[in-house]
Input
Amino acid sequence: MGYINLKERYFLLRHLEKIKIHVCREEQSLITSILGKIRFPDILFTPAEYRFLKTVIVSCLHDAMDQKDEIQVNFLRCLFSKIEQYACQEE
Output
């Protein structure tokens, strides 16, 4: 399983902070929970948090594809596969 490195964690922290004010209360509580957990090396998310992260990453991936940013697309695909692996292990 791939380890979520500091660059990937920083991306998630930055992006989640940015969208936090634009989402509903339920998603805000998920973001708050994720932000509290992502700072630690042994990340254990709930299934709802994994689903939310996967949705966020897919949205970012679509934006990167629209902008034809190949570096960002590859970065997000790698991050998505890591999140998916973590989610599969938890189930």
